[in-house]
Amino acid sequence: QVQLVESGGGLVQAGGSLRLSCLFSGSDFSAYPMGWYRQIPGNSRERIAVIDSGGNTKYPNSVKGRFTISRDNAKNTVYLQMDSLKPEDTGVYYCWSLNNSWGQGVQVTVSS
Questions:
Q1: Are 36 and 100 in contact (CB under 8 A)?
Q2: Which of 43, 44, 91 is closest to 67 using CA atoms?
């Protein structure tokens, strides 16, 4: 059974940076495409980054150039580096794996 545990959320000022981490357990991490989603109050959950088993990445225009997803297969961990944060990035961020497992979510708050 795949389990995902996120860490690294918090409060940051606009223009600042945060790095989220997601520790994967329960299966062969290196074989799984992984991703990050976020949920902003009043909105549906939005996919903001995905990385496949070969390290290829995709982002929506809303975060492209500011967010970077990466993975360390030796540590069974996927990361989300978030730079140039904006108040509209505030929300709960979730780690996701291809078998549709989800982490518990971490709060990211960007103050203006």
A1: no
A2: 91
